[in-house]
Each structure stands twice: as C-alpha cells, then as structure tokens.
Design brief:
Order of helices and strands: EEHHHHHHE
Number of strands: 3
Strand order of the largest sheet: 2-1-3
Helix content: 40-55%
Structural class: mainly alpha
Radius of gyration: 15 Å
Distance between the termini: 11 Å
Strand content: 5-15%
C-alpha cells in the first residue's frame, strides 16, 4: 500500500482487484509502453495519473471517492474534484510540491 499526503489529507492507495478490473486501467497502462516519443510519453503518464489515483483510492476511500466505472461523466467529475481539492495559496511552488509525499510501507517497515 502507498500513502499520498495532499495538504493535511492522507490517502491510502491500494489497487483492489474489483476497482482495477472494472476501471480498465491496466489496458491504459499497457498502452503507455507503446508510446515512443519522450514528451508524448510524459504527457500520457500525466494525463493518466488522476485516473490511476482515483482507482487506487477505491479500496479505502470509496465513500468519499467512489464512482461507477461505467459512467464516464461521473468518473470525470471525480477526477476533476480530486485534482482541484486544494485551493492555491501564497505558498511557493516548491512548498506546494513538497505537500505531495508518496510513501510506501515496504520502504518503512513497522508502519
């Protein structure tokens, strides 16, 4: 399991079987490997990231982040909400970047 901290909120990311299968995210990840242009590849990863996080939070945060994977409009709405959860403040961009800290239990035994 991975944890991501967005501001004061900590999200547990774990890709459960059901959410991963129903979302079709695996096929999208496999398609990333077929992109040869470096810039295009980076853009594709960044475009996929909100959906990847949304699928990953279904296991532990379904009540807050849940969506019907067959409802594209609902999924898009949830992804937009997640990418706009923090209002911009007077913090420097370096400080804002520091607010997102992925961690992994495998890297921190005993958590």
């Amino acid at each position: 399991m991975t944890k991501i901290k967005l501001g004061e909120k900590e999200l547990n990311i774990k890709f459960g079987y059901e959410a991963t299968l129903k979302s079709g995210i695996i096929a999208k990840i496999v398609q990333l490997d077929q992109i040869e242009d470096g810039v295009e590849s980076v853009n594709a990863v960044l475009m996929l990231l909100p959906e990847l996080i949304l699928v990953g939070v279904q296991k532990f945060h379904e009540k807050e982040f849940g969506y019907d994977p067959n409802n594209e409009e609902q999924k898009e709405k949830q992804m937009k909400l997640r990418t706009a959860t923090r209002p911009h403040s007077q913090k420097s961009s370096a400080r804002r970047r520091a607010d997102v800290r992925p961690t992994c239990d495998a890297w921190h035994p005993g958590r």
